[in-house]
Write a structure and sequence with these properties.
CATH superfamily of the largest domain: Glycogen Phosphorylase B
CATH topology of the largest domain: Rossmann fold
Distance between the termini: 19 Å
Structural class: alpha/beta
Pfam families: Glyco_trans_1_4
Strand order of the largest sheet: 3-2-1-6-7-8-9
Helix content: 40-55%
Radius of gyration: 21 Å
Shape: globular
Protein name: Glycosyl transferase family 1 domain-containing protein
């Protein structure tokens, strides 16, 4: 089988959707299939997984990109070379960042003009996404052309059906893979200072780091002994640094930058805090649970499907400061139970996880091709 993979999103490096399509590509190569791929335009710091795919026999198709006067990178959505290769392939698999990218004219043209089966994954369907009438009809039509649609969270599928006002019976939930496997949890940190980590792209609009700093600036929290690490990178780094200074939290907050080894992260931190405004199923939560760390999360995406308040973590009922403050206060009161809660988190995740999500997606693609060939023969 010849598979062409197109990763579609603006220039944001490497995220959950990349992990899934790359894992699918690895599974396909291991099964003897041919793979061509076009990644996102800006893989800075993420060359290793791309190089591994090429070394394993995949072919990377180039994408034209440019930088504007503000230093922002732009790229063609659908590379011409990919279109030519896709015409000779057996299947096209598209990794889409959000509904906004799905409705791009050039991408819609590729999907509607495809002569081979098309499958897709959409990483994020926003809780507040509401499409104008014409775009809603267009989205229903385009999504109906997919032989399979993979989403990373059960709530994402429900939200998509609400956004479309239509059923998506070919939707399949496959969470993104975590980056490393473990045979046992990461040992509990020695530090006596409760240390929290927000492992996420530095993008407050989605990840809510600004809300966290606001809550922790309360005098009650300033009188408590704690530390906070922001693990990740993004354009909002300077803003978050300034915000921490504004709130008088500079001595409590460390911006560590991106770290690829989850074991190193959780060797130094006691609890994940992810105050997101929108999510699907964050890899950061799955990694923290796998490392036996409790998680404090907002009730968005599938966060509350895995995190049970007071059992293996804490759930803020919403993404407003008062809701986050209440959850953080509960966590502080129960901080002596964090280690036990982390063990429960490990048990919850190991019982729930799909250890080979790439193979799961590949089996869907193989079934699509087999069905298409059967129709051709018939």
């Amino acid at each position: 089988m010849k598979i062409v993979i197109l990763a579609v999103e603006a220039v944001v490096g490497w995220g959950g959707s990349e992990e899934l399509w790359a894992d699918t590509a690895r599974a396909a190569l291991a099964a003897g299939h041919e793979v061509w791929f076009t990644p996102r335009v800006d893989p800075r710091g993420y060359a290793e997984p791309l190089n591994e795919l090429v070394a394993s026999g995949a072919t990377e198709l180039p994408r034209r990109s440019w930088t504007d006067t503000d230093g922002r990178m732009h790229a063609e959505m659908v590379p011409a070379e990919l279109v030519a290769v896709a015409a000779r392939a057996d299947l096209l698999f598209i990794s889409i960042g959000s509904m906004r990218h799905l409705l791009d004219d050039s991408l819609v043209g590729l999907i509607e003009g495809a002569k081979v089966p098309v499958a897709a994954t959409i990483q994020l369907i926003g809780e507040t996404d509401i499409l104008p009438d014409a775009l809603r009809e267009r989205a229903r039509r385009v999504i109906g052309l997919f032989g399979a649609l993979v989403v990373p969270a059960h709530r994402s599928l429900k939200t998509l059906q609400r956004v479309l006002a239509a059923r998506v019976d070919h939707g399949v939930v496959v969470p993104s893979p975590i980056r490393r496997d473990l045979t046992e949890p990461v040992p509990w940190p020695d530090s006596a200072v409760p240390t929290m980590a927000c492992v996420a792209r530095l993008s407050p609009l989605q990840k809510g780091q600004d809300l966290l700093l606001e809550v922790l600036s309360d005098p009650v929290w300033k009188n408590r002994r704690w530390a906070l690490n922001f693990v990740g990178r993004g354009r909002a780094g300077p803003y978050l640094t300034e915000l921490a200074a504004f709130y008088g939290l500079t001595d409590r907050l460390t911006l560590t930058g991106f770290q690829s080894d989850m074991r190193a992260v959780w060797a130094q931190n006691h609890m994940l805090v992810l105050p997101s405004r929108e999510e699907s199923m964050p890899i950061a939560i799955m990694e923290a649970m796998f490392c036996a760390r409790p998680c404090l999360v907002t009730d968005v995406g599938d966060n509350a499907r895995l995190i049970i308040d007071g059992v293996n973590g804490y759930v803020a009922e919403g993404d407003r400061p008062h809701a986050l403050a209440a959850a953080l206060d509960r966590a502080w009161d129960g901080r002596h139970d964090w280690k036990t809660m982390g063990q429960r988190a490990f048990e919850t995740y190991t019982a729930d996880r799909d250890p080979t999500p790439g193979k799961t997606v590949l089996s869907l693609l193989e079934s699509m091709c087999a069905t298409a060939r059967g129709r051709t023969v018939g």
